[in-house]
């Protein structure tokens, strides 16, 4: 039977995440990495905005127009520590990018073919989604944070950049809210993701015990984003309760929109490239996509209907 097995459905319901090894081939991964490398190479630093991306729970979260209008475009976002005090890159541009998004699934043919593949549709059928829509597709680059070679003894030792930094604990529905909540993340390993290079960590079962208690929304002024609380803040869960989820290239990690998850620094000498997008239940199934969400569909690019879109 296509889609998820009964055992996988039970595990996803219990834990809020599911690792599916060998969901796609090494050849698929290689092809997508080639497209990603081409996109990185195409970046023109002479004209590109220096927009940095952070998931911090504060008004420091990225929220300029370049970000807010990226839902129907392919745009580049830098790591928080990609630039020095003079605005100069501290490393090569290919290692300074945090992510590329957010319409790869629509505008890049190889990613479109991959995103609307039958296997994705089968999974959403298994989860009993009636009108799933794809949005917020991203390439996420957790570049190596390995130290540079030491300088000569007479040289001054400068602080090292925190490239490939951490992603703090969060729930995806905080950023893509529907009423009722329905976000599901598809996270594809284009390279091996290990404990050393920043694999994900999950708090199993937290989607059942911790409600979606906050949201990142557009500010009423129309410029920037902020966080609002739907109820009292939830204390940070103990670190000891998280479990790591190292995966090999070709794996899909399915992520419930309310499960707590995070990732650590990449301290290895190996990169950790992944492709990800989200599905939400659409209005034809009685779900409302909130007008305050940071990503808003446009007339030119409405949220793509998964079942009705050809790869």
What does this structure look like?
InterPro entries: Phytyl_CoA_dOase-like. This protein is about 20% helix and about 25% strand. With about 300 residues, the chain is of the alpha+beta class. The chain has a single domain, classed as Sandwich (Jelly Rolls), CATH 2.60.120.620. The strands form 4 sheets. Strands 1, 2, 3, 4, 7, 12, 14 and 16 form an 8-stranded antiparallel sheet that branches. Strands 5-13-8-11 form a 4-stranded antiparallel sheet, with no helix packed on it. It is globular and about 50 Å long. The two termini are about 20 Å apart. The relative contact order is 0.23. About 5% of the residues have low confidence.
Topology, element by element:
Layout: H1 6-15, E1 17-20, H2 26-42, H3 65-68, E2 74-78, H4 93-96, E3 97-102, H5 104-107, H6 109-115, H7 118-126, E4 132-141, E5 167-170, E6 178-179, E7 184-189, E8 200-202, H8 206-209, E9 214-218, E10 225-229, E11 243-245, E12 252-256, E13 261-263, E14 273-281, E15 288-289, E16 304-305
Antiparallel strand pairs: 1-12, 2-3, 3-4, 4-14, 4-16, 5-13, 6-15, 7-12, 7-14, 8-11, 8-13, 9-10
SSE sequence, one letter per element: HEHHEHEHHHEEEEEHEEEEEEEE
Which blocks of ≥5 consecutive residues have pLDDT under 50? 56-60, 147-162
The CATH superfamily name is: q2cbj1_9rhob like domain
| Count of separate structural domains | 1
Residue share in helices?
A: 10-25%
Strand content: 15-25%
Shape: globular
**Under the CATH scheme, which class?**
Mainly Beta
Q: For the report, how would you describe the main beta sheet?
A: 8 strands, antiparallel
Secondary-structure class: alpha+beta
